[in-house]
Amino acid sequence: MKLKPKYFDDFHVGDCFETEPNFISKDEIIDFASKYDPQTFHLDEDAAKNGPFGRLTSSGFMTLGKSFTQIFNTNVFNGSSMGAWGLDELRWTKPVYPGDTLKTQVEVLEKKLSSKNPIKGTVRLKQTVFNQNEDVVMTWISNSMIKVKV
Amino acid sequence: MKLKPKYFDDFHVGDCFETEPNFISKDEIIDFASKYDPQTFHLDEDAAKNGPFGRLTSSGFMTLGKSFTQIFNTNVFNGSSMGAWGLDELRWTKPVYPGDTLKTQVEVLEKKLSSKNPIKGTVRLKQTVFNQNEDVVMTWISNSMIKVKV
Description:
- The structure is a homodimer.
- By secondary structure, chain A is α+β, with helices and mostly antiparallel strands.
- Chain A has 4 helices and 6 strands; from the N terminus they run E-E-H-H-H-H-E-E-E-E.
- In chain A, a hairpin with a 5-residue loop joins strand 5 (about 120-130) and strand 6 (about 135-145).
- The interface between A and B is large, with 36 and 35 residues.
Protein backbone atom coordinates (compact mmCIF):
# COMPACT_ATOMS: atom_id res chain seq x y z
CA MET A 1 0.00 0.00 0.00
CA LYS A 2 1.74 3.15 -1.22
CA LEU A 3 0.92 6.42 0.52
CA LYS A 4 1.22 9.92 -0.89
CA PRO A 5 4.66 11.39 -0.04
CA LYS A 6 4.38 13.80 2.89
CA TYR A 7 6.33 16.99 3.47
CA PHE A 8 6.68 18.70 6.88
CA ASP A 9 3.45 20.65 6.19
CA ASP A 10 1.51 17.41 5.56
CA PHE A 11 2.18 15.79 8.96
CA HIS A 12 -0.46 16.52 11.60
CA VAL A 13 -0.20 15.57 15.28
CA GLY A 14 -2.41 12.55 15.95
CA ASP A 15 -2.39 11.28 12.35
CA CYS A 16 -1.75 7.51 12.04
CA PHE A 17 -0.82 5.17 9.25
CA GLU A 18 0.15 1.52 8.94
CA THR A 19 2.67 -0.43 6.85
CA GLU A 20 2.38 -3.62 4.86
CA PRO A 21 3.39 -6.78 6.79
CA ASN A 22 6.80 -8.47 6.32
CA PHE A 23 7.93 -12.03 6.92
CA ILE A 24 10.95 -12.71 9.19
CA SER A 25 13.02 -15.70 8.07
CA LYS A 26 15.51 -17.80 10.01
CA ASP A 27 18.18 -17.21 7.36
CA GLU A 28 17.83 -13.44 7.58
CA ILE A 29 17.99 -13.52 11.40
CA ILE A 30 21.24 -15.52 11.31
CA ASP A 31 22.78 -13.44 8.51
CA PHE A 32 22.04 -10.15 10.30
CA ALA A 33 23.28 -11.46 13.64
CA SER A 34 26.56 -12.66 12.15
CA LYS A 35 27.37 -9.06 11.17
CA TYR A 36 25.65 -6.79 13.70
CA ASP A 37 24.63 -8.72 16.83
CA PRO A 38 26.58 -11.98 17.24
CA GLN A 39 24.92 -13.17 20.44
CA THR A 40 24.38 -16.97 20.31
CA PHE A 41 20.59 -16.67 20.77
CA HIS A 42 20.40 -14.69 17.48
CA LEU A 43 23.00 -16.79 15.65
CA ASP A 44 22.68 -20.49 16.41
CA GLU A 45 19.45 -22.50 16.70
CA ASP A 46 20.91 -25.17 18.98
CA ALA A 47 22.72 -22.80 21.33
CA ALA A 48 19.57 -20.63 21.48
CA LYS A 49 17.70 -23.51 23.18
CA ASN A 50 19.76 -22.79 26.30
CA GLY A 51 19.52 -19.00 25.90
CA PRO A 52 17.17 -16.49 27.55
CA PHE A 53 14.31 -17.09 25.06
CA GLY A 54 14.59 -20.91 24.66
CA ARG A 55 14.86 -20.57 20.88
CA LEU A 56 16.32 -18.44 18.10
CA THR A 57 15.14 -14.80 18.09
CA SER A 58 15.74 -11.80 15.84
CA SER A 59 18.27 -9.20 16.90
CA GLY A 60 16.34 -6.19 18.14
CA PHE A 61 18.54 -4.09 15.82
CA MET A 62 17.28 -6.12 12.85
CA THR A 63 13.66 -5.70 13.97
CA LEU A 64 14.35 -1.95 14.08
CA GLY A 65 15.80 -1.90 10.54
CA LYS A 66 12.90 -4.00 9.22
CA SER A 67 10.37 -1.65 10.82
CA PHE A 68 12.07 1.44 9.39
CA THR A 69 12.17 -0.14 5.92
CA GLN A 70 8.45 -0.95 6.13
CA ILE A 71 7.74 2.71 6.82
CA PHE A 72 10.09 3.85 4.06
CA ASN A 73 8.35 1.50 1.62
CA THR A 74 4.98 3.20 2.20
CA ASN A 75 6.51 6.08 0.21
CA VAL A 76 5.62 8.59 2.92
CA PHE A 77 9.17 10.03 3.11
CA ASN A 78 9.80 9.86 -0.63
CA GLY A 79 11.69 13.03 -1.55
CA SER A 80 11.15 14.66 1.84
CA SER A 81 13.40 12.75 4.28
CA MET A 82 16.65 14.44 5.34
CA GLY A 83 17.61 11.68 7.78
CA ALA A 84 16.94 11.50 11.50
CA TRP A 85 18.83 12.95 14.43
CA GLY A 86 17.79 10.44 17.02
CA LEU A 87 15.60 7.77 18.57
CA ASP A 88 13.98 7.68 22.00
CA GLU A 89 12.38 5.10 24.26
CA LEU A 90 12.96 2.05 22.10
CA ARG A 91 11.45 -0.98 23.88
CA TRP A 92 11.65 -4.65 22.88
CA THR A 93 8.49 -5.95 24.52
CA LYS A 94 8.33 -9.53 23.14
CA PRO A 95 10.78 -11.74 21.24
CA VAL A 96 10.59 -11.97 17.43
CA TYR A 97 10.92 -15.54 16.10
CA PRO A 98 11.66 -17.02 12.66
CA GLY A 99 8.38 -17.25 10.76
CA ASP A 100 6.82 -14.20 12.42
CA THR A 101 5.11 -11.56 10.28
CA LEU A 102 5.53 -7.98 11.48
CA LYS A 103 3.80 -4.72 10.64
CA THR A 104 4.30 -1.20 11.98
CA GLN A 105 1.77 1.42 13.02
CA VAL A 106 2.97 5.03 13.02
CA GLU A 107 1.52 7.98 14.95
CA VAL A 108 2.60 11.62 14.60
CA LEU A 109 3.47 12.79 18.15
CA GLU A 110 4.92 16.26 17.53
CA LYS A 111 6.36 18.54 14.85
CA LYS A 112 8.72 21.50 15.13
CA LEU A 113 10.09 23.75 12.39
CA SER A 114 13.87 24.26 12.53
CA SER A 115 14.64 27.72 13.92
CA LYS A 116 18.12 27.71 12.31
CA ASN A 117 17.02 26.54 8.88
CA PRO A 118 13.25 26.72 8.29
CA ILE A 119 13.39 24.73 5.05
CA LYS A 120 12.97 21.67 7.28
CA GLY A 121 11.64 20.53 10.64
CA THR A 122 11.62 17.64 13.09
CA VAL A 123 8.68 15.25 12.94
CA ARG A 124 8.52 13.03 16.03
CA LEU A 125 6.86 9.68 15.27
CA LYS A 126 5.86 6.83 17.58
CA GLN A 127 6.16 3.39 16.01
CA THR A 128 4.38 0.28 17.33
CA VAL A 129 5.40 -3.05 15.78
CA PHE A 130 2.96 -5.99 15.94
CA ASN A 131 3.40 -9.68 15.13
CA GLN A 132 0.81 -11.92 13.44
CA ASN A 133 -0.94 -12.46 16.82
CA GLU A 134 -1.34 -8.69 17.31
CA ASP A 135 1.20 -8.80 20.15
CA VAL A 136 3.31 -5.65 20.41
CA VAL A 137 6.93 -6.75 19.92
CA MET A 138 8.63 -3.32 19.78
CA THR A 139 7.87 0.37 20.21
CA TRP A 140 10.16 3.24 19.26
CA ILE A 141 10.11 6.99 18.75
CA SER A 142 12.02 8.61 15.88
CA ASN A 143 13.02 12.23 15.41
CA SER A 144 13.09 12.71 11.64
CA MET A 145 14.17 15.76 9.64
CA ILE A 146 11.57 16.42 6.96
CA LYS A 147 11.66 19.05 4.19
CA VAL A 148 9.09 21.83 4.07
CA LYS A 149 7.09 21.85 0.80
CA VAL A 150 8.41 24.35 -1.75
CA MET B 1 41.62 -6.21 23.29
CA LYS B 2 39.61 -8.88 25.11
CA LEU B 3 38.20 -7.96 28.52
CA LYS B 4 37.26 -10.32 31.33
CA PRO B 5 33.57 -11.31 31.05
CA LYS B 6 31.48 -9.33 33.53
CA TYR B 7 28.42 -10.48 35.46
CA PHE B 8 25.89 -8.13 37.06
CA ASP B 9 28.02 -8.04 40.25
CA ASP B 10 31.09 -6.92 38.28
CA PHE B 11 29.58 -3.74 36.81
CA HIS B 12 30.13 -0.61 38.92
CA VAL B 13 28.56 2.79 38.27
CA GLY B 14 31.16 5.09 36.71
CA ASP B 15 33.32 2.29 35.28
CA CYS B 16 34.41 2.86 31.67
CA PHE B 17 35.91 0.74 28.95
CA GLU B 18 36.69 1.13 25.27
CA THR B 19 36.42 -1.10 22.19
CA GLU B 20 38.83 -1.81 19.37
CA PRO B 21 38.32 0.41 16.28
CA ASN B 22 36.49 -0.84 13.14
CA PHE B 23 36.67 0.29 9.53
CA ILE B 24 33.48 1.31 7.69
CA SER B 25 33.53 0.39 4.00
CA LYS B 26 31.44 1.74 1.14
CA ASP B 27 30.35 -1.78 0.18
CA GLU B 28 29.08 -2.53 3.67
CA ILE B 29 27.17 0.79 3.83
CA ILE B 30 25.40 0.03 0.53
CA ASP B 31 24.70 -3.62 1.39
CA PHE B 32 23.18 -2.71 4.76
CA ALA B 33 21.12 0.12 3.30
CA SER B 34 19.69 -2.11 0.57
CA LYS B 35 18.12 -4.31 3.27
CA TYR B 36 17.43 -2.08 6.28
CA ASP B 37 17.50 1.61 5.32
CA PRO B 38 17.01 2.14 1.56
CA GLN B 39 17.26 5.94 1.55
CA THR B 40 19.20 7.14 -1.50
CA PHE B 41 21.86 8.92 0.59
CA HIS B 42 22.83 5.52 2.13
CA LEU B 43 22.46 3.53 -1.08
CA ASP B 44 23.76 5.37 -4.12
CA GLU B 45 26.97 7.45 -4.32
CA ASP B 46 25.73 9.65 -7.17
CA ALA B 47 22.28 10.36 -5.76
CA ALA B 48 23.86 11.07 -2.34
CA LYS B 49 25.66 14.11 -3.86
CA ASN B 50 22.26 15.84 -3.95
CA GLY B 51 21.20 14.48 -0.55
CA PRO B 52 21.31 16.11 2.90
CA PHE B 53 24.99 15.21 3.54
CA GLY B 54 26.41 15.85 0.03
CA ARG B 55 27.88 12.32 -0.10
CA LEU B 56 27.21 8.70 0.84
CA THR B 57 26.74 8.11 4.60
CA SER B 58 26.19 5.04 6.77
CA SER B 59 22.69 4.26 7.91
CA GLY B 60 22.47 5.20 11.57
CA PHE B 61 21.03 1.73 12.19
CA MET B 62 24.19 0.20 10.77
CA THR B 63 26.38 2.45 12.94
CA LEU B 64 24.35 1.19 15.90
CA GLY B 65 24.84 -2.49 14.99
CA LYS B 66 28.58 -1.93 14.40
CA SER B 67 28.91 -0.22 17.79
CA PHE B 68 27.05 -3.02 19.59
CA THR B 69 29.23 -5.65 17.87
CA GLN B 70 32.38 -3.80 18.93
CA ILE B 71 31.22 -3.98 22.54
CA PHE B 72 30.21 -7.63 22.20
CA ASN B 73 33.66 -8.42 20.78
CA THR B 74 35.41 -7.10 23.90
CA ASN B 75 34.02 -10.26 25.54
CA VAL B 76 32.49 -8.28 28.38
CA PHE B 77 29.02 -9.88 27.99
CA ASN B 78 30.35 -13.36 27.22
CA GLY B 79 28.06 -15.82 29.03
CA SER B 80 26.28 -13.09 31.01
CA SER B 81 24.07 -11.27 28.45
CA MET B 82 20.36 -12.08 28.46
CA GLY B 83 19.51 -9.51 25.79
CA ALA B 84 18.35 -5.94 26.27
CA TRP B 85 14.89 -4.52 26.88
CA GLY B 86 15.46 -1.12 25.37
CA LEU B 87 17.49 1.84 24.20
CA ASP B 88 17.18 5.51 25.16
CA GLU B 89 18.36 8.85 23.85
CA LEU B 90 20.11 7.61 20.72
CA ARG B 91 21.64 10.63 18.91
CA TRP B 92 23.34 10.72 15.52
CA THR B 93 25.58 13.75 16.02
CA LYS B 94 27.72 13.63 12.85
CA PRO B 95 27.52 11.66 9.59
CA VAL B 96 29.58 8.46 9.18
CA TYR B 97 31.32 8.20 5.79
CA PRO B 98 32.92 5.32 3.85
CA GLY B 99 36.52 4.98 5.06
CA ASP B 100 35.80 6.15 8.60
CA THR B 101 37.15 4.19 11.55
CA LEU B 102 34.87 4.05 14.59
CA LYS B 103 35.39 3.03 18.19
CA THR B 104 33.00 2.99 21.15
CA GLN B 105 33.51 4.13 24.75
CA VAL B 106 31.18 2.63 27.33
CA GLU B 107 30.28 4.02 30.76
CA VAL B 108 28.18 2.25 33.41
CA LEU B 109 25.37 4.69 34.32
CA GLU B 110 23.19 2.60 36.61
CA LYS B 111 22.42 -0.97 37.72
CA LYS B 112 19.29 -2.49 39.24
CA LEU B 113 18.63 -6.07 40.34
CA SER B 114 15.38 -7.54 39.02
CA SER B 115 12.79 -7.62 41.81
CA LYS B 116 10.79 -10.36 40.01
CA ASN B 117 13.73 -12.60 39.22
CA PRO B 118 16.94 -11.72 41.12
CA ILE B 119 19.13 -14.05 39.05
CA LYS B 120 19.56 -11.05 36.73
CA GLY B 121 19.48 -7.26 36.64
CA THR B 122 19.44 -4.28 34.31
CA VAL B 123 22.75 -2.59 33.58
CA ARG B 124 22.28 0.82 31.96
CA LEU B 125 25.23 1.77 29.77
CA LYS B 126 26.04 5.00 27.91
CA GLN B 127 27.86 4.50 24.63
CA THR B 128 29.85 7.22 22.85
CA VAL B 129 31.04 6.44 19.33
CA PHE B 130 34.04 8.35 17.91
CA ASN B 131 35.48 8.55 14.40
CA GLN B 132 39.19 8.71 13.52
CA ASN B 133 39.20 12.50 14.15
CA GLU B 134 37.83 12.00 17.69
CA ASP B 135 34.50 13.53 16.61
CA VAL B 136 31.51 12.05 18.40
CA VAL B 137 29.29 10.54 15.68
CA MET B 138 26.71 8.79 17.87
CA THR B 139 25.68 8.39 21.52
CA TRP B 140 23.22 5.86 22.86
CA ILE B 141 22.04 4.35 26.14
CA SER B 142 21.27 0.63 26.41
CA ASN B 143 19.32 -1.20 29.09
CA SER B 144 20.85 -4.68 29.16
CA MET B 145 19.78 -7.72 31.17
CA ILE B 146 22.85 -9.29 32.76
CA LYS B 147 23.08 -12.49 34.81
CA VAL B 148 24.12 -12.42 38.46
CA LYS B 149 27.23 -14.51 39.16
CA VAL B 150 26.43 -17.99 40.53
